[in-house]
Write a structure and sequence with these properties.
32% of the residues lie in helices and 20% in strands. The chain is an alpha+beta fold and 217 residues long. The radius of gyration is 16 Å and the shape is globular. Bound molecules: coenzyme A.
Length: 217
């Protein structure tokens, strides 16, 4: 699947040699949409939580925005089955990174330890209110490629693929502070899902079958 755009970009399936570029886009957008480089002890921490596991465990649902001049400048990753993904995260992803991230003991207070504690608790992704939205996704684009319609096209690629994999609906868990992303999801037909104790996150969902609101207006 691919779609060429007038400005020399293409949305195409993820390939293994995109890994480094996807990690770079992730860290440069991981601070509530802004640049997270330098915030954590290692710049690979956020990608190791929010990009790497999807690329390993569900590569067929990963798509990249490839620019002729700049290479991979955006991506969408996710899963069609959050419950199965959480099991695979625990069984295959946590052991893979065990030498990098020893499990924090006691209450995590430092930014790195807070994220590493999340890494060791993938079951946090399973919430009863989200049961009818089994797919979930993460999407990020470098700043100079934002607000050009690429996000819409990446979401369309993901929804089509997730629907083919049997997921009737998708959810996102996004930082409530990321107001730009909230507007984006609102424009694409996502609605808020009430969740008990959402913490700093808002949960949004939509069907994977209707492309209404996702196609360019
Ligand atoms: C959020 C993000 C994925 C949106 O992708 P995008 O390519 O910039 O969005 P699009 O150009 O496809 O925009 C689709 C619609 O959302 C609106 N929109 C997108 N970003 C917006 C923003 N920051 N503020 C207000 N509206 C926004 C667009 O105006 C457009 O509306 P339209 O119906 O008038 O056309 C992208 O901006 C991004 O990667 N941001 C940084 C990382 C991030 O926040 N990721 C999401 C984490 S939950």
């Amino acid at each position: 699947m691919s779609s060429t755009e007038a400005n020399e970009t293409v949305i195409r399936p993820y390939r293994a040699d995109d890994l480094g570029a996807v990690y770079e886009v992730c860290v440069r957008t991981a601070d509530a949409g802004g640049d997270a480089r330098g915030i954590y002890r290692g710049d690979e921490l956020m990608p190791n939580l929010f990009a790497g596991p999807y690329l390993l465990l569900d590569p067929d649902l990963a798509f990249v925005l490839d620019s002729e001049g700049s290479g991979v400048v955006g991506y969408v990753v996710g899963t069609a089955d959050t419950r199965a993904f959480v099991g695979a995260y625990r069984d295959r992803w946590i052991p893979r990174l065990a030498h990098h991230y020893p499990e924090p003991s006691g209450e995590a207070t430092e930014p790195d330890d807070i994220m590493i504690a999340l890494h060791y608790r993938p079951e946090r992704m399973i919430l009863p209110e989200l049961a009818s939205y089994p797919a979930h996704l993460h999407i990020d684009l470098l700043p100079s490629f934002q607000r050009c319609g690429h996000g819409r096209r990446l979401i369309a690629a993901f929804l089509t693929a997730a629907h083919r994999r049997g997921a009737p609906a998708v959810h996102v868990g996004m930082l409530t502070a990321n107001t730009g992303a909230r507007t984006f999801y609102d424009r694409l037909g996502f609605h808020e899902i009430d969740v008990a104790d959402p913490g700093p996150l808002s949960y949004l969902g939509r069907s994977t079958s209707s492309m209404a609101a996702v196609a360019a207006p």
